[in-house]
Amino acid sequence: MYEPQPAYKFTFGLWTVGNVGRDPFGEPVRRALSPVEIVHLLADVGAWGVNLHDNDLVPIDASPAERDQLVRTFKAALAETGLVVPMATTNLFSDPAFKDGAFTSNDPAVRAYALQKTMRAMDLGAELGATTYVFWGGREGAESDASKDPVEALKRFREALNFLCDYSNDQGYGYRFALEAKPNEPRGDIYLPTTGAMLGFIATLDHPEMVGVNPEVAHETMAGLNFVHAVAQALDAGKLFHIDLNDQNSGRYDQDFRFGAHNYKQSFFLVKLLEDQQYAGPRHFDAHAYRSEDSAGVRDFARGCMRSYMILAAKARQFNADPEIQQLLAELNAPQPELTPLQGRYSRERAQALKAHTFDRQALGQRGLGYERLDQLVFELLMGVR
Ligand code: GLT
Ligand code: MN
Ligand code: MN
Asked: pLDDT, tens digit, for every residue of 63-115?
C-alpha cells in the first residue's frame, strides 16, 4: 500500500543518494557512486526519475569526447531501467570561479562564463529529455553589502534569466524555469531569499510565463517561514513548477534531512496540500542520508522519503473522509446567506448596503471556534489512534 507509485513521480538528484557525507568539519564517509550506479540504485528502490547538475554527470574539465562517452553510458542506464530525467540544473556554486556569485558577480567575465556554462548544461538537460530547468543561486549573495550593490545584483540576475529564456526558445527546448530560494548558506545572505521574493521577481522578467518556483522545505524553514503557506502561494499563482522535499529543524544549518524526518505535522499538511490541489509535477527529494549511514542506510533513506510521502498521502485521504473532522470543518465554513448580498465584487450599492448593516460584534468575538478539538483530532490521526 505504501510502495512508491509512478503516478507520484518520485525523483532524486544524482547529488542526493550520491552524497558522500562530507561536511565543513569532516571528510567523506561513503564511496562516491558513479551516475550509472546511482541510476540502478534509484530504479531498485522504486524511484520514477533522476535529476542532475551538469557536473554531477560530466566533470567540469571533461573533454568533448569524454562528455559524449559519459552521456552515452548514462542514457543506456536510463533506457535499461526506465528512469526519466525530468529536471536539470547547472552547478554555479562549486568551482572557485563562482566564489562571489555567477550571474550576479561583479566580474563581467564570471557572468559571461556562467551564461556559457548554463547554456551548455541546458543542451545536456534537453538531450536527456528534461523539461524543467532549476536555478538555485547558492553563491548569488554577499557577506558584506559593501562588496556588491543589491539593486545591481537583481538587474544582473534578471538580464541572465531573460537571456536564457530566449536561448531556450531559440533552441526550441520548451523548458520551464524554476527558481529556488534560500536565505543563506553558503553565502552570508543570498539574494531573493524566499519563495515569495522569487514570485515577486518573476513578474519583472521578459517571459514571466516561462518562469516559476522550486520551493524547498529546508530553505523556507531556515528562514523561519511556514513552508505550506509558501507552496500555497506558488500554487495560487500557477507557479509551482517543481518542489524540493526534505526536512529541517528550524534555526539550524541546511540539514536536508529525509522527507518526514523532523516535522511530521508540517509534512502532513504539505502532502495534503499537494494532493488536494492535484499537483502534477515531480515530487523531488532534495535530501541526503545521515552521515552515520553506509550504502544500506542510503537505500533506507531513499525508500523512507517515498514511503513517508505515501503514508502521509493516505493520512490526507483519511482526513478528508473522517466524519468528525469534516463535520467540524463544515460548521466552521457554514455559509451565511443573509450576508451574500453584502459581499463579493465591489459595487456602489453593495458598499452602501454593507456600510448600513449592523453587526453583532460581541457575538463574533465570543464564538468559540473548536480549533483545539480539530487539532487534537489531527494529532490522533497522525499518531494512528484514530
Ligand atoms: C544543492 C542545494 C539544493 C539545490 C540543488 C540544485 S544543489 O544541493 O543544496 O538545495 O536544490 O542546484
Ligand atoms: Mn534544493
Ligand atoms: Mn537544502
From this structure: 999 999 999 999 999 999 999 999 999 999 999 999 999 999 999 999 999 99
* Residues involved in catalysis: 53, 56
The answer to whether residue 276 is domain-embedded is: yes
- Ligand 3 ion: Cβ-proximal residues, 5 Å cutoff: 218, 254, 256
What is the pTM (predicted TM-score) of this model?
A: 0.97
Count of domains forming the chain: 2
Torsion of CA 256, 257, 259, 263, to 10 degrees: -110
Strand 10-13 to 283-285 pairing: parallel
Distance of CA 168 from the midpoint of ligand 3 (Å):
26
Ligand 1 contact, 180 CB (< 6 A): yes
Q: How far is the CA of 193 from the centre of ligand 3 (A)?
A: 13
- Please tell me whether residues 233 and 376 are part of one structural domain: no
Domain range spanning residue 190?
6-321
What is the 3-class SS of 204-225, one letter each residue? CCCCHHHEEECCEHHHHHHCCC
Q: Are residues 336 and 190 in the same domain?
A: no
